[in-house]
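Researcher: Next entry in the queue.
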Amino acid sequence: MTIIDNIAELGKYDFSDTSFDLLMQNRIHRVLMICSNYDNYMLEEDGRIDEQIFNEYVSLSLRHPPVFVQTDNAEDALKILREESIDLVISMESLKGTDVFALAKRIKNDYPNIPIVVLTYLSREVSLRLEGEDMSAIDYVFCWLGDASVILAIIKLIEDKMNAEHDIEVIGVQALILVENSVRYLSSYLPDIYRILLLQSLDFQKEALNEHQRMLKKRGRPKLLLADNFNDALDLYRKYKYNVLGVISDISYRRDGVLDGNAGLELCRIVMADDDKVPFLLQSSSLKHKEEAEEMGAGFIYKYSKTLSLELRNFLIQNLAFGPFVFRNPETLEPIAIATDLQSLQQKLLTIPENVLEYHATRNHFSKWLNARALFPLAQMFKYIGKEDFPGIEEMRRFLHTAVSSFRLGRGRGVIAKFDKAGFDEYQVFSRMGEGSIGGKARGLAFINRMLKTNKLYNRFPDVLITIPRTVVLSTDAFDEFMDHNNLYPVALSDLPDNEIFNKFLAARLPGHVIQDLFAFLAVSRSKPIAIRSSSKLEDSHYQPFAGIYSTYMIPRLSEDQRMVRVMGDAIKGVYASVFYKTSKTYMTATSNVIDEEKMGIVLQEICGRSHGNIFYPTFSGFARSLNYYPVGAEKVEDGIVNVAFGLGKLIVEGGLSLRFCPRLPKKIMQLSSPESALRDTQKTFRALDLDMNNFVLSGYDGENLPALDIRDAGNDTAMKYLASTFDYENSMLRDGILYPGRRIITFAGILQHNLFPLAEIISTILELGKKEMNNSIEIEFAGDLETPPGSPRIFNLLQIRPVVHSEESGTISLDDVKPEDTIIYSESALGHGVFRNISDLVYVKPESFDPARNMDLSVIIENLNSSLAARGKGYVLIGPGRWGSADPWLGIPVKWAQISAVRLIVESGLENYRIDPSQGTHFFQNLTSFGVGYFNINPFIDEGYYDVDYLNSMSPVYEDEALRHVCFEKAIDIRIDGRTNRGVIMKPE
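Model: Structure for this entry, 990 residues:
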């Protein structure tokens, strides 16, 4: 198989990440300066060498400048070496009364790993003296020319040598080899070379997506390796030849211990014969070598040139691919286009003429430029492809463009990119606006993004892309700015009704920079509707359960960006306002949090799905938890549980009917155990986003524009082939698929029974990895789009991950000896663990007079009872039929969490003529478990648990009406839950 055969798969290619954090592990931290006080004064220019070096580091955005320790005599120097950690010794050659070279030998003998550098003033007398000295203990000799930059160059040269082997051979960092034996010239332009290298590292930091990446990416700059003779230079080239960016060499230096006037020319011949694409610069004090250098294809610099530094800089930029990539006409070498970064290179690859593309590709110009910018994985790929690998230049163009695209997409995954209006594009998966906290929900998304990359989950399943939707987070500093500039706290903390708070927030102004960023976001997100989701500091955090408390708005994608930004801005203000609604304030009180300490981030997220006429929805949405507290048959608690529905997940959040299954045993679904239960217990409606802006309303209720639609009106055979079965009325049976006449039932048969999409396997994998990564039981939210165009993978979007918070355990609990008749309630489907203390109040719905039509009224009565008990600091038990918290009053009593905030134990009790599946999987359920509220499910009429309602009816009530009773025991009742066996009891008083 040739390269061209793999272009289609290149989009999925997983480029390995460069481990920049493993680079430059060895650093110079403390430098011992051995010099006279006068020399020290001269070096410091009035005693400021630390300041000079610090300023030099800051100007080049370098970190960790070294500390200098100075002494003027050998005895103190040896004492300092014994007592302190020293990484480098720099000694002035002219130290009076001290033989510097003898001292160097002594230091090297005792501390062989500490490099020693001699600084000397430039004179003929000094040069002659050095020629007669034993230099074996000296690593380098440099001239002091009055510029602190030579100290920086010395430090960087030694650090490069210390880290070269690992960083070059293991990580792939590039090397620039310098061969020079003249102390004078080396001292003159070594600082120039380093300044160019370090400025180049500042330039390629632009490729980083955030500040952390920028900091690490600096470590990937090319290393400078110095040799002063032919043999060492050739050894360096042979050792690192696959990573040599270029060679700069003098011509006359020692070879085999003897001065050779043509050693540099010979080194050039050997290198060019091995790889003629390696840039080679020869330099000499004799112009006679210029012609020879040019004949070999090498550059040449005259050492006595007045523009030596400028010529050196130009060679490095033009031949070592520093700076922008310049596309040139192959015939005239005139520039025709410039790419300043990888993004612009990708764009230019599509438009440059074929002959220009061929010219640069066949000369390794692309790989050199990528290497110089520390983009090693992509450079490695480009280096080993040739014209012969493709049928034509256009195929090569497509390959190069796709490779850059794949690399940029992979680089954008798993990181939180800093949002930049100029650089934001479709290759950034997760970005942040601002410098504040991103909030709990956004942290969960960022964690998922990293987890997917770390575990290589994106393309693990054939024809499926597992990812998060494109996300931009507006951090909490924008919230602070909005609240302060509009003076909203007096309104927010008042007792005004929710709608008045909402209107006050809507009338306020967002910061101007936020509006500008929204325009930049929309310039990239052109087609999908946008979800404006809350992400507060407390939301979805460990032991801070705030699931579903704040607002989320979904906005159709409008063609006019101006109008779209206005609507998005209003939605952001609506989310901000929801922090201060009555429900939120009650919730804050229940969690012992202070409302004015809450900060709100905003998640801007493309919505998963497709448009169908005037509505938009995903193929499916759902929730999954790594714990299944209602295992049936072979299911186990640790197998997890999934609730999934056709359309938007708002249906599940509000307690609507969805399909519930165990991901390990997806074919065994209780709701489908009979045609009758399938007809009764499966999804009847679905939620979708109304795309008609004439119907769009932004209000305090975030579901205003998400109508509940009848499944029968869905149509959409593409989705239904995955999701639906048909009820055959004639034979009273379910038939998988939609090829038969009859009523469509949402069974997910194509997915769960016939594996047309590996939903159960994907969820099991993510739950297992997520549980391991978070070291906690987890819950995830997800959505899927199976209606992608031909040739495109189907989409599984992860929307959230959060910990499932448990109440504090109270040791081992055994209920083996408990007899049901000794209990008020005995449940074998209990959630929680521990002993629930100090509860003496019990509120229950009378089974004998229960009427679902009155469920809405009951929620108001229960709220009043809850307020009374909460005011006295009393928890209570709440018992009733159906689903507590259901948005559908026919499925249960539609209380919101704020209406039962003091509850300690919830009991859902089925009746013979009113059996509803439990609430597990909803935000309401998440909040119950997160607060450590106990949870029982009982169906006494089929012997699933025990409920002695007669015992309760015999007690005198604190409150009673025709539907509800509140009783209070003299002493706290005994409530225990064994989480290992899912059993729970409320004992009768002894």
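Model: The two ends are 80 Å apart (CA to CA).
Researcher: Noted, moving on.
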